[in-house]
Design goal:
38% of the residues lie in helices and 11% in strands. By secondary structure, the chain is of the alpha/beta class. It has a single domain, classed as Rossmann fold (3-Layer(aba) Sandwich), CATH 3.40.50.620. Strands 3-2-1-4-5 form a 5-stranded parallel β-sheet, with helices on both faces.
C-alpha cells in the first residue's frame, strides 16, 4: 500500500510552502493546488511552481475569474493595496482589510475537496493562521471546523463510509516566526517563495504591504535573515 494522498493548497507564499513541507514530512504523497483567479500579479504562481517542483508534488493550476465580483484590492485594480511607512510594525487587525477576497478560501477548499475525491484522498492541507494574519474571517479555526463538517456531509466518499475528509491546519496556532522555524527545520528554502501583495513589474516585493510586514516580522523575531530579501540586495 502506497503513501496516503493529500491535496495541499499552495499559493507560493511562506505559509503554504511550509505546510507542503510538513505534509510531505508526515508521509503524504502531495498534490499541490494553486489558482489563477484574477489576482494582481502572477509572481506567486511562478513561486508555487518552484515550490511544488522542489518538493516533488504534482502541481495543478485552476483558472477561475474572481475579478467579475471584485470587492478586494487583490482582484480589483480600482482598490489600492494598503501600504505602511518604512519600518512600520503591523498591529493586530481590528477590522477586515481590503485585501480580503470574498469567500476565497471557501472557493479554494471546494476545488481541493473535489480533487481529493477523485484522487481517493481523505486529507486536505491549508496554511491558515489565527495568530499572525490580516484578520480574514476564513482563516479562523471555527471556519475550518465548519467546513470540515460540511465536507463530510457533502461527499460521496464520506457519506458511503469509504473515507472521512480531514482538513489540516498545522499553522493555525503558530506565529509567523514559529512557522518559519518549522520550515527551516524541514529544509525549506524561503528564497523561492513570494509573499507580497503588490510587487513591482519585476516581481520585487514592495516591503510595505501587510503581507510583507508580517513576513519581515517573522524573520526578525526569529533572528534570521530572509533569503528572498538577501538575494534581492546582493
Amino acid at each position: 500500500m502506497g503513501a496516503p494522498k493529500a491535496v495541499v493548497l499552495l499559493s507560493g507564499g511562506l505559509d503554504s510552502t511550509t505546510v507542503l513541507a510538513m505534509a510531505r514530512a508526515a508521509g503524504f504523497e502531495c498534490f499541490a493546488l494553486s489558482f489563477r483567479y484574477g489576482q494582481r500579479h502572477g509572481v506567486e504562481l511562478a513561486a508555487a511552481g518552484r515550490v511544488a517542483a522542489a518538493f516533488g508534488a504534482q502541481h495543478a493550476i485552476v483558472d477561475i475569474d474572481l475579478t467579475m465580483f471584485g470587492g478586494s484590492a487583490l482582484t480589483d485594480a480600482r482598490i489600492a493595496v494598503p501600504h505602511h511607512g518604512d519600518g512600520a510594525v503591523l498591529a493586530a487587525a481590528s477590522e477586515i482589510p481590503v485585501t480580503y477576497v470574498p469567500a476565497r478560501n471557501t472557493i479554494f477548499l471546494s476545488f481541493a475537496l473535489a480533487w481529493a475525491e477523485t484522487l481517493g484522498a481523505g486529507d486536505i492541507f491549508i496554511g491558515v493562521s489565527a495568530i499572525d494574519y490580516s484578520g480574514y474571517p476564513d482563516c479562523r479555526p471555527e471556519y475550518i471546523a465548519a467546513y470540515e463538517r460540511m465536507a463530510n456531509l457533502a461527499t460521496k466518499a464520506a457519506v458511503t463510509g469509504e473515507r472521512e475528509i480531514s482538513i489540516h491546519t498545522p499553522l493555525v496556532s503558530l506565529s509567523k516566526a514559529e512557522t518559519i522555524a518549522r520550515g527551516l527545520a524541514l529544509g525549506v528554502d524561503y528564497g523561492m517563495t513570494h509573499s507580497c501583495y503588490d510587487p513591482d513589474p519585476a516581481g520585487v516585493p514592495c516591503g510595505t504591504c501587510d503581507s510583507c510586514l508580517l513576513r519581515r516580522r517573522g524573520f526578525s523575531e526569529l533572528g534570521v535573515p530572509d533569503p528572498l530579501t538577501t538575494r534581492q540586495r546582493a
